[in-house]
């Protein structure tokens, strides 16, 4: 049950058996149905989620009610509104399930306590945050400088096989194009 999250930690830190057991004792776990909202913009992000199975999305809803996908979080990814979670202030983003999804999660106070008890966890989440910031910078540059076709190719490299699992409108929203235009791109590339 814990194999994937422990291997995720192992990407950046080495936990001894006692530390791994302590972390497992503090992790919470739940399965959420497709379309379940885990965070609504304006609420405080109380948890950081690890996707063990399924897929979450982080998105913004504009004043017209249109949703704009910022990030997909399939298996082995973390999902959080980092500014809201870190500062315990209202969230800018929403997080919801694109599929029936199984997550592990830490609440803010539990993670803060774990940082004191297992200091290397702070290093892990610092690296995770740096990698996430890098990803956002690349995404912004891509959206400003690349064509829709190039963004579609980047989506494929970043999220292999996800296209078969989620709705075309979700991918189009992520790419900043209409579903009709996405169909045209697929037709040219397929």
Task: List key phrases describing it.
single chain, 190 residues, alpha+beta, Jelly Rolls, 2 domains, 4-stranded antiparallel β-sheet, 47% helix
What's the topology here?
Blueprint: H1 3-10, H2 17-26, E1 28-32, E2 37-39, E3 47-53, E4 55-61, E5 67-74, E6 78-79, H3 82-87, E7 94-97, E8 101-107, H4 108-117, H5 120-145, H6 148-158, H7 168-175, H8 179-189
Organism: Mucilaginibacter jinjuensis
Protein name: Crp/Fnr family transcriptional regulator
Domain Cyclic nucleotide-binding: 11-123
Can you put this structure into words, describing what you see?
- This protein has about 190 residues and is of the alpha+beta class.
- The chain folds into 2 domains: about 1-130, Sandwich (Jelly Rolls), CATH 2.60.120.10; about 145-190.
- The protein contains 8 helices and 8 strands.
- The chain has helices at about 5-10, 15-25, 80-85, 110-115, 120-145, 150-160, 170-175, 180-190, and strands spanning about 30, 35-40, 45-55, 55-60, 65-75, 80, 95, 100-105.
- The strands form 2 sheets. The chain has a 4-stranded antiparallel β-sheet.
- The model has no long low-confidence stretch (mean pLDDT about 95).
- This is Crp/Fnr family transcriptional regulator.
């Amino acid at each position: 049950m814990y194999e994937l999250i422990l291997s995720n930690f192992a990407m950046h830190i080495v936990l001894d058996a006692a530390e791994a057991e302590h972390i497992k004792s503090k992790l919470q776990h739940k399965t959420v149905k497709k379309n379940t909202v885990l965070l609504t913009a304006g609420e405080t992000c109380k948890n950081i989620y690890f996707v063990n199975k399924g897929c979450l999305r982080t998105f913004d809803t504009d004043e017209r009610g249109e949703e704009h996908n910022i990030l997909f979080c399939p298996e082995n990814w973390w999902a959080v509104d980092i500014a809201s979670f870190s500062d315990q202030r209202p969230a800018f983003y929403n997080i919801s399930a694109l599929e029936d999804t199984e997550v592990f999660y830490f609440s803010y106070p539990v993670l803060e306590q774990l940082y004191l008890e297992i200091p290397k966890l702070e290093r892990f989440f610092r690296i995770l945050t740096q990698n996430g910031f890098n990803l956002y910078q690349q995404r912004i540059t891509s959206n400003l400088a690349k064509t829709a076709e190039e963004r579609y190719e980047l989506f494929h490299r970043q999220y292999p096989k996800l296209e078969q699992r989620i709705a075309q409108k979700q991918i189009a929203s992520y790419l900043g194009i209409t579903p009709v235009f996405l169909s045209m791109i697929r037709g040219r590339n397929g």
